[in-house]
Every structure is written in structure tokens, then in C-alpha cells.
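Next comes this protein.

***
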Amino acid sequence: MKHAFENELTTILVDHHAISQKEAIALEYAFYQSDADEFEDFLLEEGLVAENDLLQALSQYYKVQAFDVVGNFFHRLLLKKFPKGFLLRHGIIPLDADNESIIIIASDPDALGLTEEIAHYVSYDIYFMVGIRRDICDAVKEFYDPSDTEVNVDKKNAEEDNYFDINNFDFWQEG
């Protein structure tokens, strides 16, 4: 079944002139010989397809709109509705919701049972867009894992309180 995905996706990429027919055959063969788990990651990591071309092909394959998650900020309250492991395991991230529906970006919107599993956490009508799995997982990790560049506000405030000691400056002293 998985071979059908790679075959159809490369056919779409050929139809979009992102790769040639000869390249498509070679890509599939190289993927099967590689240690890569995901065909999309293989294409991107090897520099064989542009990310935008891959998103367009995934959109056509899954028959849903594509969404590039890179550089986007996601709603904190929506993300908090789902455990980190669940989002990473399924390669999904919530994008937006209103009173009745939620839009989920998924690396595989057609995954068997995905809608039902999401429904364990939210009671919205669920609509999907497709995104690239590694980008989705990076966005989830960025949200749940504090960044090395993130400043701990409490620590920063404590350091600032102790930093500016007026008694340590000679120019304040007379004489």
C-alpha cells in the first residue's frame, strides 16, 4: 500500500514538472534502498524536490488544501487541548477553530482512525489541511519544549533586581 503512495506522489510531481519521469523512477528506487522512513523527508533532505512543489503534490494527492507550517504561530489554547506525544505520533497540529469546527494540519489526513482519535480530545467538526510531517513535528516541539533562546522571565527579573546596585559605582561617591 505504501508503494502506491510513493508512486502516485511521484506521478503528481512529474505532472507538475517538478521532476522528470526518469527522475521519478530513480527517486522511488533510491528511497526503497535508503534508511529513510518518510518519502517526503527523503525528497526534501536529498534536495530532490522543492518544499512548495511537495506541498502542492500532497494537496493534490490528499485532495485538501496544503499549509506550510514553517514560520507560523499556532494558538496556544488549541495546542494545549492535545498531548505533545499525540500530536507528534500522528504528525498533526491544530491551526484554527471556531465554535463548531477545527482545522487540523496533518501529514496524512487520510490516516485510518485519525478523525476518531482527534475527537477524543475535542468535540468540533474536524477539517484537514495537509502539511509536511517534519515541519509539523518541529512546530509542535517548538511549542512544547522551551527554546535555548527563550528567556525565563522570573530568572531574568531576579537577575535585573540584583544587577544594578548603586553602591558599586564610584561616581556616586563624593570625594
User: Anything to note?
Assistant: The longest helix spans residues 2-15.
